């Protein structure tokens, strides 16, 4: 080996022994670049999002249920008066044990308020059943100043005066019904609900209804 070659070899060995080692960060970067997949993280995330979205159902919104108003309970009334004896020859009276009517408390409160404002304890609600309407029968509801000869009079047991007047023929078609007073956006009114003699829910207007087939008149 020549002297020039020997000097070059010693210079290379000397420079290699004094070269600083690679930094840890550079080493990890080199290792990561050698073993990392060809796609970047920015490309992987959208792909994962698409896969997760594909596994979701079409709709994740909660199931909504139709709102149902709470049922209004009726309170029993007392039969405070019956048709006059002279009317018995003209009409068929309802037996006392069947002459029943339910009245909600808010209906009784409204009747009492009306009677108090008019300073007349005999003012009450008159209900009559007429033939007609889209289902065969319909209710006619109005205020009355007092009892007529063929009326049954029902009164609330606690709130007084709160009277309901029903003639004998109409009572045959609506005995055991529930009288309510409802307040809505379009207005407030008395109404007849849960008539045991009515078939189904009746007309959507809430006035006309159909008589059950097994009701004997």
From TrEMBL:
GO cellular component: mitochondrion
GO biological process: iron-sulfur cluster assembly
Highest taxon listed in the record's lineage: Eukaryota
InterPro entries, sorted: ATAP, ATAP_core_dom, HesB-like_dom_sf
Ranges annotated as biased composition (Basic residues): 8-17
A molecular-function term among this protein's GO annotations: 4 iron, 4 sulfur cluster binding
Pfam families (alphabetical): Fe-S_biosyn
Region ranges (Disordered): 1-30
Residue ranges of domain Core in the record: 100-205
Family matches, as NCBIfam families: iron-sulfur cluster assembly accessory protein
UniProt family annotation: Belongs to the HesB/IscA family.
Listed PANTHER family: IRON-SULFUR CLUSTER ASSEMBLY 2 HOMOLOG, MITOCHONDRIAL
Protein name: [4Fe-4S] proteins maturation
Primary gene name: ISA2
């Amino acid at each position: 080996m020549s002297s020039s070659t020997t000097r070059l070899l010693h210079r290379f060995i000397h420079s290699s022994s004094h070269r600083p080692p690679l930094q840890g960060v550079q080493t990890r970067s080199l290792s990561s670049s050698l073993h990392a997949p060809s796609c970047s993280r920015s490309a992987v995330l959208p792909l994962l999002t698409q896969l997760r979205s594909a596994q979701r159902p079409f709709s994740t919104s909660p199931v909504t249920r139709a709102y149902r108003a709470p049922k209004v309970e009726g309170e029993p009334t007392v039969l405070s008066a019956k048709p006059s004896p002279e009317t018995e020859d003209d009409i068929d009276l309802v037996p006392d044990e069947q002459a029943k009517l339910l009245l909600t408390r808010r209906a009784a409160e409204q009747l009492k308020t009306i009677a108090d404002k008019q300073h007349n304890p005999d003012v009450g609600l008159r209900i009559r059943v007429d033939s007609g309407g889209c289902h065969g029968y319909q209710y006619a509801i109005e205020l009355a100043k007092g009892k007529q000869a063929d009326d049954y009079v029902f009164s609330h047991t606690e709130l007084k005066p709160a009277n309901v007047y029903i003639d004998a023929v109409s009572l045959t078609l609506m005995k055991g019904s529930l009288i309510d007073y409802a307040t809505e956006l379009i207005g407030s009114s008395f109404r007849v609900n849960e008539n045991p003699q009515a078939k189904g829910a009746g007309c959507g207007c809430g006035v006309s209804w159909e008589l059950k087939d097994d009701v004997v008149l």
